[in-house]
């Protein structure tokens, strides 16, 4: 679905990404891991069009594309849920879902249609909130997180980028969110999950891509790789920067 080839990004004197490669397939959850300042958030911004790459190739379904702004990513079907959620606490669920893409009828907001679509979308994703007309600030952190994910589906995305989605959640809320991620994978979506939580990664991810100091440091199959191997790659105890990229999708990474 998505492939990055030799992507690099610099901020003044800081080289944030160096020749990064990444592949995400439909119906797959890829976890992106790395220590602080490894380049994870920068890579998400490159894919989402917030901070375009300086060089490299981005392929969408096998064809090279240009993602220079967020609208370019949205047109392709790429949606992003950032760590800060970027929602308005004074607006209700309906208002947040359609913020910036409100539906109008005869020149005025069509509140009835937006509420209908909100309820339909929540039902489709098996998401429950107390009331779609309650201010977002009145919801729990877990409920706000799933509302943010629901908002990304207003545009019917095919690839979902999640930046540390469980950081502020409790155990029960985390479990519900991980169930939602699994359901999205089963629906055929591609998911890129940025997380520091190894438990979350083991629970839902198919593969783990590790960044260290802005470079690839290994891609691992979650089911066949030990936690120690992944942590060694994150900390730099294991240097996998020379790991070759598979020449065919069916070839497994070591």
From TrEMBL:
Region annotation (Disordered) ranges: 233-254
Q: Does the keyword Nucleotide-binding apply?
A: yes
**Record field: compositional bias (Polar residues):** 233-245
Per its UniProt record, what Pfam families does this chain match? ABC_tran (PF00005)
Tell me which stretches of the chain form a coiled coil.
none
Molecular-function GO terms, alphabetical: ATP binding; ATP hydrolysis activity
Q: Does the keyword Nucleotide-binding apply?
A: yes
This protein's UniProt keywords: ATP-binding, Nucleotide-binding
Q: Which residues form the ABC transporter domain?
A: 2-238
Q: What name does UniProt use for this protein?
A: Sugar ABC transporter ATP-binding protein
Organism this protein belongs to: Streptomyces phyllanthi
């Amino acid at each position: 679905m998505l492939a990055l080839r030799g992507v690099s990004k610099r901020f003044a004197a800081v080289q944030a990404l160096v020749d990064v490669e990444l592949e995400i397939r439909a119906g797959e959850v890829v976890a992106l891991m790395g220590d602080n300042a490894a380049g994870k958030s920068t890579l998400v911004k490159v894919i989402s069009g917030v901070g375009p790459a300086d060089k490299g190739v981005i392929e969408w379904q096998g064809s090279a594309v240009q993602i220079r702004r967020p609208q370019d990513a949205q047109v392709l079907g790429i949606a992003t849920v950032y760590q800060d959620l970027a929602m308005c606490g004074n607006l209700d669920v309906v208002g947040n879902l359609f913020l910036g893409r409100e539906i109008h009828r005869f020149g005025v907001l069509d509140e009835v249609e937006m509420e209908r679509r909100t309820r339909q979308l929540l039902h489709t994703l098996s998401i429950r909130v107390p009331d779609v007309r309650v201010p977002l600030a009145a919801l729990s952190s877990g409920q706000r997180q799933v509302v943010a994910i629901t908002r990304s589906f207003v545009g019917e995305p095919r690839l979902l980028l999640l930046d540390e989605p469980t950081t502020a959640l409790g155990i029960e809320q985390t479990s519900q969110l991980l169930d939602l991620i699994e359901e999205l994978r089963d629906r055929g979506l591609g998911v890129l999950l940025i997380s520091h939580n190894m438990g979350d990664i083991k629970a839902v991810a198919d593969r783990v891509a590790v960044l260290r100091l802005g470079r690839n440091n290994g891609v691992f199959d979650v089911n066949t790789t030990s936690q120690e191997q992944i942590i060694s790659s994150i900390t730099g105890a294991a240097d996998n920067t020379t790991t070759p990229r598979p020449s065919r999708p069916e070839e497994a990474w070591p």
